[in-house]
Amino acid sequence: MERRTIWTFLTLTLVLALVAGCKPASTSVPTFPPPAPTDTPKPVESRKLILATTTSTQDSGLLDFILPDFEQRFNVQVDVVAVGTGQAIKLGEDGNADVLLVHARAQEDAFMAAGHGVRREDVMYNDFVIVGPAADPAGIKSLTSAVEAFQKLAESQATFISRGDDSGTHVKEKEIWQKAGVEPAGDWYISAGQGMGEVLTMADEQQAYTLSDRGTYLARTLEGIELEILVEGDPILFNPYGVIAVNPNKGPHIKAELANTFIDWLISLPTQEKIAEFGVDKFGSPLFTPNSAPWREAHK
């Protein structure tokens, strides 16, 4: 009995020793600092460019057609201020725009000569048209001279709606009145002080006459105006557009480099081709004709 007890004790001792030998050795677990958070790149904020332009480029739909390409390609938000050319030029003079897209060449040249702009480029052209009611009470439809048409409008005192806003269209209208030897005044002559689209609507409602750029007129026919083109094709009705970079000396807020990028893009062949396409699907011909130096060079 004693031997069995001793044997049992030895057996238990051996088992306990084996179990103890199987336990893993105590090891210290190294600690590391938590990984630094991965720096997530912030989305690049789009830059902003202030474009002061005439209402015709906006009302015709041209800017909506071409600007998305520029904004996406260069990550730029273009803030469009659509006013008359005179007001657009004043914005440039006051340093409240980076780039201008306007259509009054004499004013553009004066702007450049005064040092307000540092670069001007031809962009495109279309023409002005004299529009009015189909009944044509002034009887100007058979005329080919805009000056003669204005003379007849004054003689008949048919209602005429003027932009009256120192826009490029208003400047052209005043030039024609001057050549016609007429100082328009009276109840028949209404100075609206409005953009081209609004003036066309007013003329349509009042069955009146007005001078319009062809692009805005055609765009508004899609919205239901019933005015007709009565006089067109006179060389005096030629309507060229230019783009101008505002002088960066106006202040550090002027985005001169971005303005030049915009100009380079606007006069480039791909953008000029887009201008040549605009309106073809709806009217069978473009509303504006490309006219930049690169375009002319490529189409000699």
Could you characterize the architecture of this molecule?
By secondary structure, the protein is α/β, with parallel strands linked by helices. Strands 1, 2, 3, 4, 7, 8, 9 and 10 form an eight-stranded mixed sheet that branches. Strands 5-6 form a two-stranded parallel sheet. It is globular. The chain has 13 helices and ten strands. The relative contact order is 0.17. It is 44% helix and 20% strand. Helix 6 crosses helix 7 (168-180). It folds into two domains: 47-126 and 240-298, 3-Layer(aba) Sandwich (D-Maltodextrin-Binding Protein, domain 2), CATH 3.40.190; 127-237, Periplasmic binding protein-like II (D-Maltodextrin-Binding Protein, domain 2, 3-Layer(aba) Sandwich). Residues 1-32 have low confidence and may be disordered. It has helices at residues 2-22, 55-59, 62-74, 85-93, 105-113, 146-156, 168-180, 196-206, 214-221, 256-267, 269-277, 280-283, 293-298, and strands at 47-54, 76-83, 99-102, 117-132, 160-162, 189-191, 210-213, 228-231, 238-246, 289-290.
Question: How many domain regions?
Answer: 2
Structure summary, number of beta strands: 10
Q: Helix count, per DSSP? A: 13
**First CA to last CA: what distance?**
125 Å
Shape: globular
In the CATH hierarchy, the third-tier topology of the largest domain is known as D-Maltodextrin-Binding Protein, domain 2
Which CATH architecture of the largest domain is right? 3-Layer(aba) Sandwich
Largest beta-sheet characterization? 8 strands, mixed
Structural class: alpha/beta
Radius of gyration: 36 Å
Mean pLDDT score: 88
Order of helices and strands: HEHHEHEHEHEHEHEHEEHHHEH
State the helicity in percent bands: 40-55%
